[in-house]
Amino acid sequence: MSTPTGAGRLDLPGTPVFDGDTSRRGFRMNKLFMSLRDAAARERFLADEAAYCREFGLTAEQEKAVLARDWQAMIDLGGSIFYVYKLAMMDGRSMQYLGGVFTGMGEDDFLAAMRAGGRRDG
Amino acid sequence: MAEVIWGLATSHVPSIGAAMDRGKTDDPAWKALFDGYAPARAWLAEHRPDVAVLVYNDHANGIDLDFVPTFGLGTAERYEVADEGFGRRPVPDVLGHPEFSFHLVESLVDEGFDLTVFQELAVDHGFTVPMSVWTPDPGDAWPCPVIPLLVNVIQYPQPTAARCYALGQALGRAIRSFPGDLTVGVLGTGGMSHQLAGTRAGFINPDFDAMWMEAVEKDPARLAALSREELIRQAGSEGIELIMWLVMRGAMDEQVTRVHSDYFVPASNTAAGIALFDNRTPTG
Fold it and tell me: Does a structural domain hold residue B40?
């Protein structure tokens, strides 16, 4: 599993840092996610996701990640978690579901770990 | 002159607002959190200020990545509640106080804090959840006008903890220099420890949170000395939001009286904290 650290200003294991370089790479994709606040935009996105991605100027890799709902890849390709979450919400996915994906634990185990007081380092 | 009468620090996790909006505050997963708010809410209901300043960050609702102001202040007469993609929260819009806002902007700019000015701003859960923590049943209107003070905590480099604390101190001076007699509440929001993405998602650090809760009252300068990297390491990539508590704390006196505090895990993926401080000189 990759450990994205953006421009490498901070290198903390398992901790994506949304820095300027990451934000620049993810700019168009994050704009797409932001647009999904609007019901008409969600409808248009769902009608033809690939066309919608092209309209926002996503890279081929980003488009593939969005279409496949590859949440880790979206983060790796410059997505901010707060923006990526707009797409997850549209799909009816919770932040606990995403936590299950990012950790590889699955939603149920992730939720159980949070209810047990959260996860620790090491 | 205007006077800061209290400071309230609280997490602003969206699911706290959702639990209230959906009537789930007595559910086993939530009851302890809301029980922990009760003493603070009762005290706040007895101490309504004339105006409040609420320090928060937006989450891709009121602003996007086209502009990333490090600090911003609202000067509007009214702030609409944002639709974040699932319909707006059933809470009132926020009335502002432009005259007080412009006084704060002028005073802060004169002190070297060059804030971005928002004449129009939709406020998201980062703002409305703390309002609901303060006032669970606002009816048609919140208890007083509220001014949003925005801090970039999403995109690196966030302002340093030291700069946030210094901004708070300048905010305190700005408030006290207002010519009218106003009582003011200040809210610092976000945190406590949490991380949403990466293999370290779900990270919670109760020891750090306990240290923070103690020091924010008695030794905020110690917290202001923490580096960005140390904050992300100790509190998680989103736990760095705690720097916004330091803006609130800086606006208060050196000595404050703790009215109430509580700590709860988990509110979604987050450690949720509340701390209420009385800033009035103790009598007797």
Answer: yes
